[in-house]
Design brief:
Length: 190
């Protein structure tokens, strides 16, 4: 086991749990909506678009952290402080992932209501994780913000934090969630 493998064992475990949490939350919502023959089938939950898009954003952002860790693998120091730093960031992602979907979905629930109850907490935690990650990158001599795309990203997060109403939130969530797959496609085309 090399230094990076040792360092990333803890982080990858928490990041993996976070991804499972988002996927399982979406699965619980779909199951409550489509499971036939249950009391919930008479009044299924309304999933909407907001919580699934927030979940997609959290999952994609989390994977980008995973990618950044690989990119930095040769420069990450392995010591208690770096492990604690990684625990703080990955623990934050775990918390954000747990909030995206409710633990239990009651009959007739509207997940858009849940979204508005947790949106600001999720965005604060994910923004803090991103800023901590950017700080770590800067401390390793790789620059703090990577260009105009990072500034647009943070501007969209701030706008989403203050956005009210379903339509405004949807119009901001779509580009935030789509940015990761689109950026990947653009980089593959170069």
């Amino acid at each position: 086991m090399d230094r990076f493998e040792f360092f990333f064992t803890l982080s990858s475990l928490l990041l993996g749990f976070s991804l499972v949490e988002v996927i399982a939350g979406f699965g619980r919502a779909v199951e409550q909506k489509v499971r036939p023959g249950t009391a919930a089938a008479s009044s299924p939950a309304r999933i909407g678009w907001l919580s699934p898009l927030l979940g997609l954003f959290v999952a994609c952002n989390l994977v980008s952290f995973w990618t950044a860790a690989w990119w930095l693998r040769d420069t990450i120091p392995v010591n208690y402080l770096s492990l604690l730093y990684a625990l703080t960031v990955t623990g934050g992602y775990c918390l954000a992932a747990m909030l995206v979907f409710p633990r239990s979905i009651v009959e007739g629930a509207n997940l858009d209501d849940h979204y508005f109850a947790v949106k600001r907490w999720v965005l604060l935690v994910v923004t803090a994780c991103n800023l901590l990650g950017a700080t770590a990158i800067a401390l390793m001599g790789r620059g703090f913000l990577q260009g105009w795309a990072d500034l647009v990203f943070y501007a969209l997060l701030v706008a989403l934090f203050f956005a009210r109403g379903r339509r405004a939130n949807l119009m901001l969530l779509i580009p935030i969630a789509a940015a990761y797959p689109v950026a990947t496609l653009i980089s593959l085309m170069r």
